[in-house]
Write a structure and sequence with these properties.
The structure is a single chain. Helices cover about 50% and strands about 10% of the residues. The protein is α/β, with parallel strands linked by helices and about 425 residues long. The strands form 3 sheets. It has a 6-stranded mixed sheet with strand order 5-7-8-9-6-10, covered by helices on one side. A two-stranded antiparallel sheet has the order 1-2. A two-stranded antiparallel sheet has the order 3-4. α1 packs across α3 and α1 packs across α5.
């Protein structure tokens, strides 16, 4: 980010307001030298006033001395004039920006213009909705606009360092980022499942546009709730992850073991923190093993049952109110209370792959550096052994390691068969 360019622009604003305290400012900031920042400005169609507020908020991070020297040199004769604004921090030795300073640079002493620009600091503005900046809550007795405003660490990292915000798994944020190097072509799904996943992709592509429609936008929800159900290893998690890759959205798997608490009120508190963190961030939320909380509700026999049911209702409310895509995953559809399934936009079954699908998975799994010794054997293996995608990957992994250990240049059917036996034994099945 070109700090000199930013400082030059802000100095020109300061000087302009000394000479023209009531005349509108026409100068525009052309470029920050940061592609990410410039793209953000273009994507959200931010006006010069909004860009100025952001640049002013970034300056204390980039050059802590700047505001102190700019105000001292330019306003030396009137440095105590209250309308200028600015805030002297306790730990930060320079001057921090506040709304008063921003309003002075944008509107000078023109009260009508100052009032018009106040919306930049209100809760319904993009800056607040996306948690880009916030006005400090300290010094409660001070006028609201006298308090310093801060650019969040998330957006400082994005604008200056080009880093996307990615919170780590913690008690306050019980979710983990899902990532994969695989692509859609690596995923093998039944035709019915693939068709329904395509419908979710269409929603992700076009629903935001419909939300802006003057008629339909008032009647549809900005969020989407889907249930993925089927045996383990059939691609539920990978599909959710690839939906994120397809759309450029982060996918977070919620660890429900850290969310659910035996203490009354704690589960709701944990859920509230989770959804507050996810609000307006355009994330895909993936609740694995969702039947642990969305299971069939019990009859109320005691206080514990009553509060357990309240927790489920609270979670359902949060899920329905979330702006983005929420995916619940379960091994069995029957484990989910039917009162909930009626409120989902789609319910998608992930079946154990058929023989033709298993053959495709086998072919995609064979490593390029270890071609199969008997290529024709895959067809009979796929027809004979009912395995899911995760099983097949485990088997090929095992067989490949054995081949490398034996210094073989090809993957033998013998090693594959040993891997199949191991996989069946693990799951308590008879080969």
């Amino acid at each position: 980010m070109d700090v000199v360019e930013i400082e030059t622009f802000l100095v020109s604003l300061f000087k302009f307001r000394v000479i023209h305290p009531t005349k509108p400012q026409q100068q525009q900031f052309k470029s920050s030298g940061s592609p990410v920042f410039d793209d953000f400005i273009a994507t959200h169609k931010l006006q010069t006033a909004e860009t100025t507020v952001l640049l002013l908020g970034l300056i204390p991070f980039l050059n802590p001395n700047f505001l102190f020297h700019a105000i001292k040199e330019i306003f030396d004769a009137i440095k105590d004039k209250p309308i200028i604004g600015g805030y002297r921090g306790k730990n930060h030795r320079g001057i921090l920006p506040n709304a008063e300073l921003a309003l002075f640079l944008l509107a000078g002493e023109d009260l009508r213009n100052r009032i018009q620009f106040m919306h930049l600091f209100e809760s319904d503005h993009l800056f607040s909705k996306k948690k880009i900046l916030s006005i400090s809550k300290q010094e409660e007795l001070e006028p609201h606009y006298s308090k310093p405003y801060l650019i969040s660490q998330e957006y400082f990292d994005l604008f200056v360092l080009g880093k996307r915000y990615s919170p780590s798994l913690s008690p306050k944020f019980p979710a983990q980022l899902l990532q994969t190097q695989l692509e859609w072509s690596d995923l093998v799904l039944g035709s019915n499942t693939a068709t329904q996943i395509e419908e979710i992709k269409i929603w992700l592509d076009h629903n935001a546009e419909l939300m802006k429609d003057s008629v339909l936008g008032k009647k549809i929800k900005s969020g989407y709730v889907a249930l993925f159900y089927g045996p383990s290893g059939t691609g539920k998690t990978l599909t959710a992850t690839l939906l994120g890759t397809y759309t450029g959205k982060d996918v977070y798997r919620i660890d429900l073991s850290q969310v659910i608490s035996k203490y009354i009120g704690e589960t709701e508190k944990n859920l509230s923190q989770l959804f507050e963190e996810a609000k307006d961030r355009d994330w895909i939320l993936f609740f694995d093993e969702a039947d642990s909380i969305f299971g069939k509700r019990t009859n109320v026999k005691d206080a514990h049952d009553k509060y357990a049911n309240q927790e489920v209702s609270y979670l359902l409310q949060q899920v329905e109110n979330h702006d983005g895509l929420v995916i619940l995953a379960s091994n069995f559809k029957g484990n989910i209370d039917t009162a909930f399934t009626r409120r989902f936009q789609s319910i998608i079954e992930f079946e154990t792959p058929k023989a033709s699908e298993r053959l495709e998975i086998w072919k995609k799994a064979i490593p390029g550096s270890l071609p199969l010794e008997e290529a024709g054997s895959l067809t009979s293996i796929a027809q004979k052994y009912e395995l899911n995608g995760a099983n097949i990957i485990n088997i090929v992994h095992y067989a490949s390691l054995q081949s490398l250990h034996m210094k073989e240049k090809k993957l033998s059917t013998q090693h594959l068969m040993k891997g199949i036996k191991r996989e069946f034994k693990k799951e308590g099945k008879i080969l």
